Amino acid sequence: MPQKTSLRATDAADYIPFSEQVDKSRVPEANAFLIERHQPKLFDAPYHHHTSIELNFLQNCEMVYSFSGQKAHLLPNQLTVFWGASPHRVNDVQGTGNITNIYLSLGQFMRWNLPSDLVQTILSGDVINVKSPSDHDILFFDRLFHERKNASPAWRRTHLIEIENRLRRMALEGWNTLTELNKAPKQLEMTSRSMLRVEAMLRFIANNYAIPVNVSDIAEAANLSVGRAGHLFRDVMGVSLKQQLLRARLSHSRMLLAETDAKVATIALDSGFSSTSSFYDAFLKANGISPAKYRKNTRHATI
Question: Cα–Cα distance between 127 and 67 in angstroms, integer?
Answer without folding.
Answer: 9
